[in-house]
Amino acid sequence: MRIPQLEGQAGTLKWMQRLADRHSAQLESTLQGMRLLPATARLHWLSPRRDDHWAEYRDDAFVVQIARPDLVDKLAAFWPRRGPQWDGLAAGGGRVFLIEGKSHVDELRSNCPAGPPASDHIARSLQEAKEAFGALASADWLDGYYQYASRLAHLRFLRENNVDAWLVFLYFTHDPAMTGPSSADTWKLHARGVAKHLGLGGLHVQNVVNVMNVMNVMNVMLDTRTLD
Question: Tens digit of pLDDT for each residue in 123-142?
Answer without folding.
Answer: 999 999 999 999 999 999 99
